[in-house]
Amino acid sequence: xxxxxxxxxxxxxxxxxxxxxxxxxxxxxxxxxxxxxxxxxxxxxxxxxxxxxxxxxxxxxxxxxxxxxxxxxxxxxxxxxxxxxxxxxxxxxxxxxxxxxxxxxxxxxxxxxxxxxxxxxxxxxxxxxxxxxxxxxxxxxxxxxxxxxxxxxxxxxxxxxxxxxxxxxxxxxx
Amino acid sequence: xxxxxxxxxxxxxxxxxxxxxxxxxxxxxxxxxxxxxxxxxxxxxxxxxxxxxxxxxxxxxxxxxxxxxxxxxxxxxxxxxxxxxxxxxxxxxxxxxxxxxxxxxxxxxxxxxxxxxxxxxxxxxxxxxxxxxxxxxxxxxxxxxxxxxxxxxxx
Lengths: 174, 155
What we know:
Oligomer: heterodimer
Number of strands of chain A: 10
Helix content of chain B: 10-25%
Strand order of the largest sheet of chain B: 3-4-5-1-2-8-9-10-6-7
Order of helices and strands of chain A: EHEEEEHEEEEEH
Number of domains of chain B: 2
Strand order of the largest sheet of chain A: 3-4-5-1-2-8-9-10
Helix content of chain A: 10-25%
Distance between the termini of chain B: 19 Å
Mean pLDDT of chain A: 92
Mean pLDDT of chain B: 95
Radius of gyration of chain B: 15 Å
Order of helices and strands of chain B: EEEEEHEEEHEEH
Number of helices of chain B: 3
Number of helices of chain A: 3
Structural class of chain A: mainly beta
Number of strands of chain B: 10
Largest sheet of chain B: 10 strands, antiparallel
Distance between the termini of chain A: 30 Å
Low-confidence stretches of chain A: none
Shape of chain B: globular
Strand content of chain B: 35-45%
């Protein structure tokens, strides 16, 4: 299953040195992501009496040997992450509404992908209750960023049960 | 990772050779673990197909077939009898030789097809990968239907 977790540190060598925007860092100290535990290696317990934490390395394209791993600190313990990883997906394939050219004004196209190809989901800042970014791999070939017409919680529902009961809300922020 | 049977109407590839017009009736067995961005096309479907999913240099092919998204998903969720396929493989694509019983992981098989002649002779072609390393094309001394059925039951 996918893990919905608050991430306090995400250091990588991709287009930015950190995936957590400064606004989130300064306001709450973390950002919530929905990540695929099949990308995790070298997980360590950083929990103490006050907080639950773990650190691990995370691969955005685990099939590509050229892919340098990110370093993540998140708000779940290794035991909790292991329990999530041991929970089966509703199906090997997941169907999500993809917006062509990542344009939310276009009509979404239902697209089915292998859950093993998913790296993580990130909230869409202008309207996080209705949209999110999906980062997945076309197998080893290419990393893809795709706008999806669901919130992180709705995606988690679909991964777990095959459907979502979480309702969307309308917003005029966009 | 089970293989599903499909009539392929379009198969665009950057690899050498044709795909359409080779297999008998253009029927193939395709591995569900190679499917990318599966979309409905009426009652049929279209998707990208990674021949070698572990090779970053492998540009996925584009396929249109007559099987619906729901059925392909059902195949992907079906348990295999074993992770290994046991197949009698002719050495060096030569049907004059003696087939050698060989175990190959189902996950490594990309697709299976039979030409019209092979269909009559009860044999078939199989393309599989030695993990990310190399593509291998072999002749299997079993008809394509038996290869399909052997995923789910003893033949």
